[in-house]
Amino acid sequence: MTAHDSAGEPSAVRTHEAAALDAAIDDLLAGGISWRETAHFAFETLRTNPVRTLLTALGVLIGVAAVIALLAIGRGSQESITSSITANGANLITLRPGASTSGGVRGAVGESDSLTMNDAEALADPLRAPNIALVSPEYAGSAQLVTGSNNANARVTGATPVYAEVHNTTVEEGGFLSEAQNRSAENVVILGATIATTLFPDGGAVGEQVRLNGQNFTVIGVLKSSGGTGFGSVDDGVIVPLTTAQRKLFGARAIGGSWSVSTIVVQATSAETVDAAAEEVATILREDHSLPADGSGDTFSAINQQTILETVTQTTQLLTLFLGAIAAISLLVGGIGIMNIMLVSVRERTREIGLRKALGAKEGDILLQFLFESLALSGVGGLAGLILGSAIALSVNLTGLVTVSLSWDVALLAFGFALAVGLFFGIAPARSAARLDPIVALRYE
Amino acid sequence: MQTMIKVRDLARTYQMGDIEIHALRGVSFDIHRGEFVAIIGPSGSGKSTLMNLIGCLDAPSEGSYELDGLPVELLDTELLAAMRNRKIGFVFQQFHLLARGTALANVALPLAYRGGISSNERMERAAAALERVGLGNRLDHRPHQLSGGQQQRVAIARALVNDPALLLADEPTGALDTATSAEILGLFSDLNRSGMTVVLVTHEPDVARATRRLLEIRDGRLMRDVPTSEAWASQPTPTQRRRRLPVRQQWRIAP
Ligand SMILES: Nc1ncnc2c1ncn2[C@@H]1O[C@H](COP(=O)(O)OP(=O)(O)OP(=O)(O)O)[C@@H](O)[C@H]1O
Ligand SMILES: [Mg+2]
């Protein structure tokens, strides 16, 4: 054996040992518990403590149920308000005397500020206003209606035959106003559905006599109910010929030989031409009333249904958001409840954690087990909350006070948020569990 | 004989605020495969500290420790967890069984952390381990339905289930009465006879006498390392032996 040989031998042994060591360490790193098994441990813990599990999940349950129910109610009312506005016609422009903008001080509405039948006729001229389809001049007031045994206060609208088309009203019994009745200012009346049942509980209103502000009127029709929850519902009103309202009931003024009206409702040819029609309305009225063309001296206001819709939608969306935020806060409180219980649970089970570590559980295994626990708690709470929230929403629907709108996206959002809350509030307890020193944990009393 | 444990100048110092507590002040020894060793010494001498180091539950402040050829003091927490799982079976004074689980579930726990073993096989192996400690008829009992001795047997079965190279026990009979202690000690002797390396901590001479080698610790230092047969100068009389030795040993000596 040479010196060279004996010098080489130890290094050969070392590389051999290093390779063996690497193999041994690779072997140690292989395997380990699967996440399914860890999840199983977590569920087992929850299953063996059913009362605590339910109480802990309760916070999230209430939160999710609140989110679902409140958003369903919020969305439902938003939809019903929106639909009752669009039912009135999305392509309508309502004109009233008086300025719409509150710029500066304005005097009282004078004679020259009134809208008149001349204005209505001018707006109906297809040459001057090609984007306007229909014009409904109206005169509104209120009156007491009396039959032999019943009476009611009602909003009275003086209208022309075109009213029915502009406002989408349908006659249930009898007929609507005719041109002739309007021309000769006849004492005829069409009752809204609610008024009809108040005055004639047994039905058969058509052909009967009604006293309206002391004058005799013949009922010629009853309107179809618009559903009752509508916005500006016609159910509580009655309709008489415009001329009758102006001359016989409310004593409208005649200005320059033309009767005044309280409202002119203009229908654009379509929803897309509403803006163009509004322009035409403004131009015609400014010309005829000799007002500045830039609109600075307008004596009328034009309200677009679209604008109302936007405002209302914005308001109800804000309301829905607000309800949702309140509900989300309760969900967050539920998450804090989970964290609280999980922290207590980690303390209670310190020795178990120590034991698991002594038996070979890695930090990640313990972390995952506790995360699964809080996730399962929020998941169970979320699922139960989904069911409870939907049940609440549906029973609110049954009462008929509000129509609710349940939707999948809200349900998934609430459930997802619940899981996220569980995960977020589970991290701190799980980390404190994973970091426990096994020796200290095993000795913990 | 193959070296299983190689401990060199092992020290462990605890830091308590400004005070350093030298629980272990540098001990060196080897333990070979198949040995049956007792670590003895007065309370506070560092026995548990040493045991935790051997068991890969704790890291030494100084010195080196090789288990089965692996340098334990260099391993990270993840590898230490794997070492505890594969190489070591622990038996604790307080049993440390999971109250919610059956005997079978408790024994199967280390197999779950090992991974890659089907649920059926885990149950079979757990049942076999319980059979081995004489509890084949108590698989579905929960800890509170078992006596102290039986609970410690479940804990021993759990320590055995992964076929560890090393069985460690820190005062395994500390919470048991004399007769039950003898039973448990008999079980350790049987396991050692079948080839298992066993190291236990005790302060009871009767327990120590069942082993074959004594490591005596005092104030964090190794005072004596002797075969058990040489530890007590005056040999006890046969009747004394009979009284002191565990049940199973008695049968073998009596006739
Ligand atoms: N985590 C710790 N922090 C600080 N000091 C500790 C810690 N663990 C143990 N010690 C100290 O180290 C010394 C040795 O403790 P150890 O538990 O090893 O003793 P022991 O021999 O097992 O005693 P016993 O027979 O009572 O179980 C003691 O002085 C003890 O107070
Ligand atoms: Mg001790």
UniProtKB/TrEMBL annotation, chain A:
Membrane disposition: Multi-pass membrane protein
Q: Where found in the cell?
A: Cell membrane
Transmembrane residue ranges:
54-74, 318-346, 367-394, 406-428
Q: Which residues form the signal peptide?
A: none
Q: What is this protein called?
A: ABC transporter permease
What organism does this protein naturally occur in? Candidatus Chloroploca mongolica
Which InterPro entries would you find in this protein's record? ABC3_permease_C (IPR003838), MacB_PCD (IPR025857), Macrolide_Exporter_MacB (IPR050250)
Identify the main location. Answer: membrane
Q: Enumerate the Pfam families for this protein.
A: FtsX, MacB_PCD
